[in-house]
Amino acid sequence: MRIQRCPATVKSCSNISKSGCPPIVNVYQISARYRLCLKAFFGFDWEVGCQALAKSRVWRYCLIALGSATSLIYSHAPLVSFATLAGITLNRRQAIVSVALIWFVNQFYGFTIRHYPLSAIAFLWCMTMGLGAIVVTLIASMLPKFSDRSWARQSVWLGIALLLGSAVYQSGTLLVNQWVGIHGLIADVLLRIFVRDGIWAIALFTLYTVLLLNHQRILRRTLR
Questions:
Q1: What is the pLDDT tens value at each position of the chain, 224 positions in all?
Q2: Geometric angle at alpha carbon 178, from 173 and 181, rounded to 5°
Q3: CA atoms within 13 A on the CB side of 201
C-alpha cells in the first residue's frame, strides 16, 4: 500500500480528506487554553505553568490572604515583598488590585484596631505607603523577556525587582520622613526592613513554586 506523505503546510494538513494526512490535532486551531494544556502535558514548561497559575484564582487569593494576615503581626505589612511577587506572577491589573487590597486591610486594621491617630500626618503616611506599593508593583510587572522562561531566570528578576522596589519605596518614606520628622528611619531600621522583605519574598516565591508544580501535576493527571 502506498502511503501519501503529509504536506508540510498547516493549511493543507487541516484538510484531511484531500491531503490524506493522518488524523492529527492541529494545535493552531485550538484555543489558547488548550494549547497551554497540551504543552504542559507533553513536557514541563515553566512559562506555560506561570501563565496557567496566573489565570487561576488560587495564587491570587492566597497572596491577598497572606498579605492581609500580616497586619496581625506587623504594624506595617511587608508591602514591598507582596507587591514584587504580585507584579511578577500576576497580570498588571490583578497585581495592582491585589496589592491595593492588602494595603487597605493593613490601614483599616491600623486605624480601627491599633488606633492610629486620625491626623493629616497619619493619612500622609497611609497614602505614601499605598502609592509606594503601587509603584513597586509596576516596576515588578515590567517583565523582561527572559524573566518567565525558567525558575532560575524568574528568581533573578525577583531579586532585581525587589532591590529596585525597595530603593524606590524607602526613598519615598525617607522623603516624607524628612518633611514630617516623626519616624526614626535610621540605617539600621531600613536594613531590618529590607531583610524582612527579603525573607517574605523568598517564602512567597517558594510557595508560588510549590503551587505551580502542584498545578502542573494535577493538569497532567487530568489530561491523561
A1: 444 444 443 444 444 344 444 444 444 444 455 444 444 443 456 777 788 888 888 899 999 999 999 999 988 889 999 999 999 999 999 999 999 999 999 999 999 988 888 888 888 888 999 999 999 999 999 988 777 677 888 999 999 999 999 999 988 888 887 777 665 566 777 888 899 999 999 999 999 999 888 877 776 666 66
A2: 100
A3: 28
Cell triple for residue 162?
525587589
Residue 39 lies inside a defined structural domain of this protein? no
Cα 82–chain centre separation: 8
Domain membership flag for residue 197: yes
Instruction: Record the pTM.
Output: 0.75
Q: How many CB atoms lie within 10 A of CB 82?
A: 28
Helices (H), ranges, the chain:
10-14, 16-19, 32-42, 46-55, 58-69, 79-89, 92-112, 120-140, 151-180, 187-223
Please indicate, yes or no, if residue 75 is contained in any of the structural domains: yes
Per the structure, the complete domain to which residue 118 belongs is given by 44-223
In a domain, 49, yes or no: yes
**Number of domains composing the chain:** 1
